[in-house]
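Quick question, first post here. What does this chain look like in 3D?
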Amino acid sequence: MAGTSKEDILAHFREQAGFCAALGSPFMGALCHAMAGDIEAGGPVERLTKGWPGDPRRDAVSLRVAGYLHYAVLGNKAPELAAVYPANNPGWTMETVWPVARDWLARHERAAKVFIKSPPQTNETRRAIALVPGFLKVASLFPGPMHTLELGASAGLNQNWDRFNYQTSRWELTGNSDVSIDTDWIGPPPDHLDMSFNVSSRAACDQAPIDLSRASAARRLKSYVWPDQPARLARLDAAIALARRTRIRVDKADAADWLKTKLASRPEEGPTVIYHSVFMQYPPAETRHALRAMIEEAGTEATWERPLAWVCFEPAAFFQGPDQEGIHPNDFITYLRVWPEGENYRLLRSDGHVIRAERL
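> Answer (accepted):
Ran it through. Tokens below.
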């Protein structure tokens, strides 16, 4: 089967350049633009991505290549590259950065080819603040011990959501850690801020979980955080340290198989809360349909002593399509469904990185 055309790969790199710039990373915007130029010129990026076997946009090929460069910088294996990257060169220009980066890629094409086979994972802890309104609502409805199940958990950092500190100009919640999450909050604070969280058990799964006990795996996770966003990098470091300290674990499993087992043995007291953030775009359609059907079926068996909740932060199209009044197709929405009452709540909209969040 023929791979992706050069034109489609170029279009992806250029589109990603715009996305990165719009999401507050001029460095990544400029880097993706420079890599697009290298594809046109037949350079190492063109050789790395030529005939890509999948959809370059869905596979985030540009972020894979950029991640390899950052991985080299973080591993102290490329001092010449580290010297021109933002951490050591706040006044960077891409005219200075790109020749060094291009040369590094040209000299390490084999290693780069292996690295970019794996998808980017950032385990974005900032998305936890988009889930908090749902957790608060669950705590207000069902005051018993909470049992959480996270799908697509990556390294499992967001299993510690109840231990994070949340700070906005409109409201805050204090946790028990050094991890602080902020966002530009629009509208009134979420309801039920007076509630406390009583997480009795937590579990998570991922098809390719990141083992944070391995320094190289933690470095790979960090490599996908954009190099000119020091607050994000510092937050990730703090979240990794917390996950190690609390011995967070992520099961390697297919989400549908894992959830079926967990739901069949869920505790008899307190709410079981299924949650995920920017996960549902990755499994195949049959898995998404199976997960939804499984959760809804489990909801029919829920009682007030043994309730079920589903908290998710996903693209608007996942639940009700892009034509909802006032909702843009590119919006990400926090939804909550609870059983036995069977109610649906639409709580928040944001961008994928939760730079800005608006209460609904």
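The first helix runs from residue 6 to 22.
The two ends are 45 Å apart (CA to CA).
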